[in-house]
Amino acid sequence: MLRSLLLAAAGSDRLGRLAGSAPAGRNAVRKFLAGRDIDEALPTGRALVDDGLAITFDLLAVETRSAEQAVAVRDEYRALLGRLKGAGLVPAAEVSVKLSALGQRLDEKLAYEHALAVCVAAAEAGTTVTLDAEDHTLTDSTLEILAELRKDHPGTGAVLQAHLRRTEGDCRELATAGSRVRLCKGAYAEPESVAFQSALDIDKSFVRCLNILMSGEGYPMVATHDPRLIAIAEDRARWFDRTADEYEFQMLHGVRTEEQARLAAGGNVVRVYLPYGEQWYGYLMRRLAERPANVAVLGRSLIGR
Ligand code: FDA
């Protein structure tokens, strides 16, 4: 019930405007987001890197509905990448990009060209790009664009979602030398025809995918807060003789920070997904919907405790 309310609130422009104008909004942003713009995001990233964590910046953008919006998103990423080196954040920082924000639903070729421009800027900055996974209707197109980008920028990363039935096959395709693959459960509501629905089936699929990635030749990026799956990933890394620089863990900013610190202290690479931007409201509501217990945490941050 609370989850449905939060997901409905995530889509409400009116509530978003109200929250954005409230002074408490700033505290909420601080808990789960890097900030509202690059100037706020860079120091947040700096503090995490100083704590021994790696980071991936994600510009929060609504799905792009015009070619102009797509250009603005591309340029924002280029501006961010242009500042990473000066801020001393490479190679610890990379960027995550949603192709839909670069115009994928308007024109795939346009999205590819914008993504290529972002990859070029990343290469100049000395870092890499990971393409976020969105709903299943975009998976084929995203993996096709990834394959094109990897011809000149082989370090470009993919995200695969364990809840999709196709993902074991995609893992096999991508478990090749130099291939960076983030494995997550999947955040989008998907129909039964394409996706496992129960938590158990999704977890089992996650483990099957993890086995393929860890036993393959690529670079697995294990993106979960789930203690059981983290323990299994640690076990598989040992079993397949992977050294600490041959895989990494990833978690969202503000979620299970003690576990992030524990894994990093144990010698693991831990990358924090660091969203920033004006479009923070929908992101925040989706995180709360995933774990309604966070409503209490957010409540405390809103009143500054
Ligand atoms: P889940 O939410 O099922 O939680 C499992 C367990 O983890 C809980 O039972 C609890 O024990 C623990 N836990 C979770 N949250 C906690 C909290 N706040 N405090 C304490 N314990 C907590 N999705 C997508 O579709 N496309 C993408 O590109 C990405 N990218 C991405 C990057 C990164 C770095 C991460 C971490 C995640 C994504 N995701 C994503 C989101 C992902 O698909 C998924 O929706 C969330 O990570 C939540 O799933 P978990 O694996 O964390 O488990």
From TrEMBL:
Domain Proline dehydrogenase: 42-295
InterPro entries: FAD-linked_oxidoreductase-like, PRODH_bac_arc, Proline_DH_dom, Proline_oxidase
Cofactor(s) listed in the protein's UniProt record: FAD
Catalytic activity: L-proline + a quinone = (S)-1-pyrroline-5-carboxylate + a quinol + H(+)
Keyword field: FAD, Flavoprotein, Nucleotide-binding, Oxidoreductase, Proline metabolism
Pathway assignment: Amino-acid degradation; L-proline degradation into L-glutamate; L-glutamate from L-proline: step 1/2
Organism superkingdom: Bacteria
Enzyme Commission number, as recorded: 1.5.5.2
Enzyme class: oxidoreductase
Pfam families according to UniProt: Pro_dh
Chain segments annotated as transmembrane: none
Keyword set includes Glycoprotein: no
Name this polypeptide is given: proline dehydrogenase
Organism whose genome encodes this protein: Paractinoplanes bogorensis
